[in-house]
Write a structure and sequence with these properties.
Layout (H helix, E strand, L loop, with lengths): L13 H17 L2 H4 L5 H49 L5 H15 L9 H15 L6 H6 L3 H21 L11 H25 L4 H19 L5 E2 L4 E2 L5 E2 L11 E5 L3 E4 L6 E6 L5 E9 L3 E2 L1 E9 L3
Parallel strand pairs: 1-8, 3-9
Antiparallel strand pairs: 2-4, 4-5, 6-7, 7-9
Helix pairs in contact: 1-3, 1-9, 3-4, 3-7, 3-8, 5-7, 8-9
Length: 316
């Protein structure tokens, strides 16, 4: 006898939960009238509840992007501050040509004021203009080379590009937080799923048509896959996707930057792991100028390790 397999809802992350019910809804849309006629008004109620879950998923996605934008903004601020400090330090260089170059670049930077305190869009525009003047072909390109700004400019360009991409991805729309608690929304979806499963199971048992069994057989493989994927088996941290660690300024002390560690799943996309909960960090060769290593070691629901490198630079 064909029968729906039991899906372990309690283990499903929110993205996987929502994706499964989207697929379930698609099966309802494609099912023949003989199946739909046995379900009465349940599909309509189910779609109303699923629409509420969609609102929550969109709002959460917006919040995740906002967190990433704030992190990218901090990295961008750090890189720009490093450039300013390097320029200011070179004003006291014993070489007159270097001093003149530092004064020219510093005067240019001063025209933009306190860039790091400006609104996102204004900050983005100012930094883009500053980089154009410091990079190849810009008015201060030769000064930047003389002042040793090239690695810092490259780092700022990288962090600015990421910042721009995230702003574009989020767009200008700001969604309001749904009023119904998410736990209730998720439960409402499940509560309309169970009666339909029972009715379709009964149809497969009592009806001579194969439509009910076909409906079940289309979804059972996905249920098996979800139950296996989100079982207590640990994920391998070596499959994580750490974001690049920006160049670190030499201080004479061990440097321990914390990379943003993302883990990709088929349903939730890249989720951000938590230091101390999902992984620990250890470092090698992280004091002197040159290449340093950061090792990410899984804990909690993650096992294994992954090593990434970063560079330590000396700002003269």
């Amino acid at each position: 006898m064909v029968k729906f397999k039991k899906l372990r809802f309690g283990r499903l992350p929110n993205g996987a939960h929502y994706d499964f019910f989207l697929d379930f809804d698609q099966e309802l849309t494609n099912s023949p009238d003989e199946v739909l006629s046995t379900l009465g008004t349940w599909p309509a109620q189910f779609r109303t509840n699923l629409a509420e879950e969609k609102k929550w998923m969109e709002w959460v996605a917006q919040g995740v992007l906002t967190d990433r934008i704030e992190q990218a903004d901090k990295e961008m601020d750090h890189d720009y501050t490093a450039i300013r400090k390097q320029v200011q330090a070179q004003i006291y260089n014993p070489t007159p040509a270097t001093v003149d170059a530092a004064k020219r670049v510093y005067a240019m930077l001063q025209k933009y004021g306190d860039v790091n305190r400006k609104p996102y869009r204004e900050e983005e525009g100012d930094l883009r203009a500053i980089l154009q003047q410091l990079q190849q072909g810009g008015a201060y390109c030769n000064d930047a080379v003389l002042l040793g700004l090239v690695p810092l400019i490259s780092a700022l360009q990288t962090s600015l590009t990421l910042f721009q991409q995230l702003l574009k991805q989020r767009g200008e729309q700001s969604l309001l937080k749904p009023t119904t608690p998410f736990s209730k929304v998720r439960r409402n979806v499940q509560d309309t799923y169970y009666p339909m499963v029972d009715l379709i199971d009964a149809g497969a048992l009592l009806n001579t048509s194969s439509a009910f069994a076909t409906f079940i057989n289309h979804l059972n493989p996905m249920i098996d896959m979800l139950n296996a994927e989100f079982s207590p088996v640990k994920h391998d941290i070596s499959e994580c996707e750490p974001e690049p660690i920006q160049p670190q300024q030499y201080t004479g002390l061990p440097l321990t930057p914390s990379p943003v560690v993302l883990f990709r799943t088929p349903h939730d996309g890249s989720i951000r792991l938590e230091l101390g909960k999902d992984y620990n960090l250890s470092f090698r060769d992280n004091t002197e100028v040159g290449n340093a290593q950061c090792t990410i070691t899984g804990r909690g629901g993650y096992r294994g390790h992954k090593t990434v490198t970063f560079v330590i630079i000396r700002i003269v």
